[in-house]
Amino acid sequence: MGKRSSRRKNTSIFDSDDDDDTASSSSTAMSDLSILDTEELDTKLQDIKVLDECVDALYEKRGSTREKALSMIVDAFSNKLQYQFVENNCITLLHPCLNSIKKGSSQEISVASRAIGLLALTVGCGDNAAEIFKDSIPPLSQALKSGSESIKISSVLECLAVVTFVGGNDPNVTESSMQIVWQIIYPKSGSNVSAGKTTPTVLAAAISAWSFLFSTVNECNLNSKSWQDSISYFSSLLDKDDRSVRIAAGEAIALIFEIGQVDKLSGEDRVSSDGSVQEGNNSRERYSYILGLKGKILNQVRNLSVEAGGKGSTKKYLSSQRNLFRDIVEFLEDGYCPETSIKIGGDLVNTSTWSQLIQFNFLKRFLGGGFLKHMHDNELLHDIFEFTPQTKQILDNKQKKMFRSPNSVLNKARTQLLNKQRQLSQNMNAGLYAVGVENEEA
After folding, report:
1. What sequence ranges are listed for the domain Interferon-related developmental regulator N-terminal (predicted)?
2. CATH code at 397?
3. 380 Rama sector, left if φ>0, alpha if ψ -120 to 50, beta otherwise
4. What is the sign, positive or negative, of the torsion defined by CA atoms of 263, 244, 316, 159?
5. Beta-carbon contacts of residue 389 (< 8 Å; ≥ 6 apart)
6. 115 in a domain, yes or no?
């Protein structure tokens, strides 16, 4: 879907100087919906109206206006599940967000990345999620090559991980995104990263994004050479001064040992080497290497599990580090994954693998203050964590027809309202506020 040909230059939520007549006309249009006089319908209609105005504002020439609109979209998608809006406006919202990533400031790119990630999580799996993924990867990859601001790069990495997680169902697709992230973690592996030193904040964000995607990989799809190389590099990062990097690297190592079943795979390679002598030697050497690497990592994580706070400039995350590495020690020595129960409202979400725990923690960080709302209402998260909140309000068939159906009373009322608003705008502002390529070039 291309850029909209004509847009109002200023909408009420972005310009306090709008004519009183316009506000009065909008109020009159709203009064025509009195037949739907329920609080929930009014709230839903108002949410949709505000989001429509935000999408309009994304076509503005002024960057600060676009950034404000993006921030409002992020808040709206964090605090509520905007199913009704995305049902009709998913791609309409996606394209101007992608344009912000291509042309916006670092702050605008950061907020646009969050908006796209939230859009993907709201849409859930399906054709729209696949299109979000397909259209987003090129501009996100390009954004990683330009500039080195930590807030921008970290947000782009998180967005890339989320859209791949939701919309990239092919293992090869996931591996491709992981490779893009890996080039941030280990810049010598490629050129898909801007010049300059990777900051600890970006490095930790990249490792977390990589682990989040790796948690979806099936054991059968693993390339033994790639996981051996990655686990060796993550081991070197356990000696870094920054605590957030050490924690992220530790989680990645535990995940690789869990999914790759390193001891099992290496042992099978060693036993099944019944070919040439050289093949047998290579297998034995690889097995010995993995055992040696595991021993080295065990020594590292033991030390980090009892660290007194010497590494790192502050004690921030020190308790988290100790607890994490104690769990890793127990896992590497005895094979036990940490089992957790997290309270969501009056219900519990349980995790029993490193994969589940890493997915839970990543999405919790990404959603921020909207995490509880999404865990309670977002069906995608319910599927991911096999979680059904007992306190969730279940709509009966009549309510579903009223609120979700494309032919619902709400949808028809929304269409009626928007048609009246557009007609009013056209009558009052015809020819005055066209926004297009010509304006941008002027």
Report:
1. 25-333
2. 1.25.10.10
3. alpha
4. negative
5. 344, 345, 347, 375, 376, 382
6. yes
In a domain, 256, yes or no: no
The pair phi, psi for residue 276, each rounded to 5°, is -75, 165
Domain count across the chain = 1
Q: What is the pTM of this model?
A: 0.77
Domain boundaries, position 12: 1-180+390-442
Element (H, E) at 342: strand 340-344
409 assigned to some structural domain: yes
Q: Which residues contact 297 (CB under 8 A, 6 or more apart)?
A: 231, 235, 238, 253, 332
Note the helical H segments in 243-370. Answer: 243-260, 262-271, 277-305, 318-334, 354-367
Q: CB–CB of 139/108 below 8 Å?
A: no
CB 8 within 8 A of CB 424: no
Question: 197, 246 in Cβ contact below 8 A?
Answer: no
Is residue 266 within 8 A of residue 287, CB to CB? The reply is: yes
In degrees, to the nearest 5, what angle opens at C-alpha 126 toward C-alphas 124 and 132?
Answer: 75
pLDDT tens for the chain, 442 residues long, are 444 443 434 444 555 444 444 444 444 434 444 444 455 555 667 778 889 999 999 999 999 999 999 999 999 999 989 988 998 899 999 999 999 999 999 999 999 999 999 999 999 988 999 999 999 999 999 999 887 789 999 999 999 999 999 998 888 899 999 999 999 999 875 554 444 578 999 999 999 999 999 999 876 555 556 667 789 999 999 999 899 999 999 999 999 999 876 655 444 444 443 444 444 556 677 778 788 889 999 999 999 999 876 555 467 678 888 999 999 999 999 989 999 998 887 888 999 999 999 999 999 999 999 999 999 999 999 999 999 887 655 555 555 555 555 555 556 555 665 565 556 555 555 544 444 434 444 4
